[in-house]
Specification:
mainly alpha; single chain; rod-shaped; 136 residues; 2 domains
């Protein structure tokens, strides 16, 4: 076998090996992407928990249980079932939460139960409304 023939055979073998490796990686791509998505979701949850602890737990409690006379609980059934009707909100619960966290509350919606932390009753957290947090 000549040197040229040997190079052609080795080149063909390397191309076939490369193709096989690419096929194997391609077949595992969906699983890899699913794992990465889980990791990113877990990281987002951890960041959200840290942001809540830093910015919200002082008023709403570490577990969202609220502080009597100051701020309402966020982890009660009322919040998820009756709160939107109570304040006359026509959108979704997600929209309500985003709007409330973003722009804050000038006055308490239930001053007889929760006075809020001061003026305003709840500060704006979105940088669009003068708060410290980015939209993401």
């Amino acid at each position: 076998m000549t040197r040229l023939q040997l190079q052609m055979v080795l080149g063909t073998i390397l191309v076939l090996i490369t193709d096989a490796v690419l096929i194997v990686f391609g077949l595992n791509e969906e699983q890899r992407m699913a794992r990465l998505e889980q990791v990113q979701t877990a990281q987002q949850i951890e960041v959200g928990a840290d942001l809540f602890e830093t910015n919200s737990s002082g008023c709403h409690g570490l577990k969202g249980e609220g502080i009597a006379g100051l701020c309402p609980p966020l982890s009660d059934r009322h919040f998820f079932t009756d709160r939107l009707k109570e304040v006359g909100w026509s959108g979704s619960i997600e929209d309500y939460i985003v709007a409330t966290v973003s722009s804050g509350r000038l006055t308490s919606t239930r001053p007889d139960q929760y006075a809020g932390g001061g003026k305003p009753a709840m500060p704006a957290w979105s940088d669009q409304f003068g708060g410290p947090l980015r939209e993401d």
